[in-house]
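Researcher: Here's a chain I'd like modeled. Treat it as a single chain, no partners, no ligands.
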Amino acid sequence: MNDREYFTLKNGLKCIFVKRSGFQVKYAGIGVHYGSSHKKYYRNGKFYESKSGIAHFLEHKAFIIDGHDALIDFDSLNAEANAYTGLEQTIYYFQTNDDLIPPLRLLLKMFFHKGFTKENIESEKPIILSELEEARDQVDKRIHEECLKLLYPNDPYSIEILGTKEDIENTTLSDLENAFLDFYTPKNSILTIVGDIDIEEVKRAILDEMKDITIHENNIERIPFVESIAPLKPKTIYEDIPYPELHIMGRIDSLNYSMPILPNKMIALFDSIFSVEAPFYKRLKEKNYLVLDDIEYSITSHEYGTYFYINIYTNNPIELKDFIIDKLKNLSVKDYDSDISNRTIKSYKSDFIRALDSISFVGDDTLSLALEGTDYEMEEDALLNTKDSDICELIPYIKNSLMTYLIALPKNVKNKE
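Model: Modeled as a single isolated chain. Structure tokens:
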């Protein structure tokens, strides 16, 4: 049984309850529509631009209540808590097999409580800088970051979620206070609870906990985090990699995450071209272009657009990029393979149905989609009822996407040059 109920408090906090009878584990998560990309906005009519990495810094300090680590309290309540920051949202959550109410009260108190001070901000900086250094040590992350900078030049969307080293070092108390007061508000947040719960009892607990929380509301008008109108020209970089890599990226600014299961449908279309059983892939193999047996590709949708990202290990990146970009720019219905695409969609359906037995999946997916303004049940319906025509309608968008590419060569190649 899967009953959903929606409830909004007078202060604007939206609540989603999903009753799953017969399950022992319970999930509660609260998310804010605020991530690393939200750097520029108007506050009460005045322009404001924050430093990078503020959303992530806030996440680090959120678990501090009056100088005490709330994670210890969650543990004592038999609740496993965690959080993560994305480009457009930050989510805090816990799971428990025990009583839901005590850790739920703690979650709400923690979320709407300023846990940062001037002193603990300074003590946190070395920890975040260490995270940043670890991220920079990962070759794949460095290359992907360079690709995003080509695709979305000078846009907040292309900045590392952790922030830049300079901004982290110079983050102040007022930087966090501004972001907290401007975005950590009930109207900008959503609470989701999943499990075998008494919904009315949970409502009463939420109302009781929220009545003592002081809320400050500013008038916030967001500025799009994608302001560039086109990608930059292609570039070549040298990295600590064993083989040359070709990275092809395409922007589709006219499609965003409001279209249900857009990434799933586009992957199904890309499988018709790049999966190992696709005719085009076999032609690539015949030309001996590829070093490895598969082509990696992904689709990402956000508030202001969608992009695809193709990664290929190849002995001949220059010739191969022409071959692939030509295929994408001349894509047609003839390239669509119903059997291949339908197998992809069928696997997504199977994964989705199996995941319904995971309370954490249902909770996290429901919350994340709600923060995007999308309904979980609408996504479910779109996935279960996808047709060939739904996938083929994306072909013109790929053909007309704004493309660029990056070639990464092994450093020993540069040394020989």
